[in-house]
Design a protein that fits this description.
The chain is an alpha+beta fold. It is built from 6 helices and 8 strands.
């Protein structure tokens, strides 16, 4: 049996069943801490499929989506719907690109969450506010998932920090999902920066200890 906390991502996405689901739900009833982490995790994961403005697809396209995707609105079915829409066409070039980027982010997150060895931690600031979630594997790669896209005219920048040393930039990104490597760092963080990034964090959003 996994640690109950490790079951929260699957539970948040409606993928947990059987004895594990029953045990977690029992624990949630008596643990405000677990309830809070579940709420924050849902806020991160469920906003990913809803990060684009509503678009009304042509009736022909939407009818095909409805026939191929169950009405259940969990994360993986949203991802499937986005991919189906891409394959069916009927959208402008810009809309196509935006949905393609969203589908790629969803697919990447789904692959990470399907790995039973993946660990996760909420990305918080000094005041305890949650800005996202970091998933990681023992061999080194990690995935940062932010709650919201960056504001217009801004980018996210990932950082790694070794105790006593200045932070090291790991790259900038304009979406909500960013894959990098945490090996060699004691802390992983993310900041909000002008386009192109900054030599050092100017607006830190949150961090995660890696040990």
């Amino acid at each position: 049996m996994k640690d109950l906390r490790e079951l929260l991502p699957d539970y948040a996405l409606g993928l947990l069943e059987g004895e594990e689901k029953a045990q977690l739900e029992q624990a949630l009833q008596s643990s405000p801490e677990l309830q809070a982490e579940l709420s924050e995790l849902r806020a991160v994961l469920y906003q990913l499929p809803e990060s684009l403005p509503p678009v009304a697809p042509p009736p022909r396209v939407w009818a095909q989506v409805q026939r191929r995707v169950s009405p259940r609105r969990d994360f993986l079915r949203w991802a499937a719907a986005a991919l189906i829409l891409l394959g069916l066409g009927g959208f402008g070039v810009e809309q196509y690109r935006r949905y393609q980027a969203l589908a790629e982010e969803q697919a990447k997150l789904a692959r990470w969450l399907s790995d039973p060895e993946v660990k996760w931690q909420l990305i918080r600031n000094d005041q305890g506010q949650t800005f996202g979630t970091m998933l990681w594997r023992e061999e080194g790669p990690c995935l940062m998932v932010l709650r919201e896209p960056p504001p217009r005219g801004k980018v996210y920048q990932a950082w790694g920090r070794k105790h006593g040393a200045p932070p090291v930039s790991l790259g900038v990104f304009t979406g909500r999902v960013f894959e990098t490597n945490y090996e060699g760092f004691d802390l992983m963080g993310v900041s909000l920066e002008p386009p192109g990034g900054s030599p050092s964090p100017t607006q830190p959003l949150g961090r995660v200890p890696t040990s």
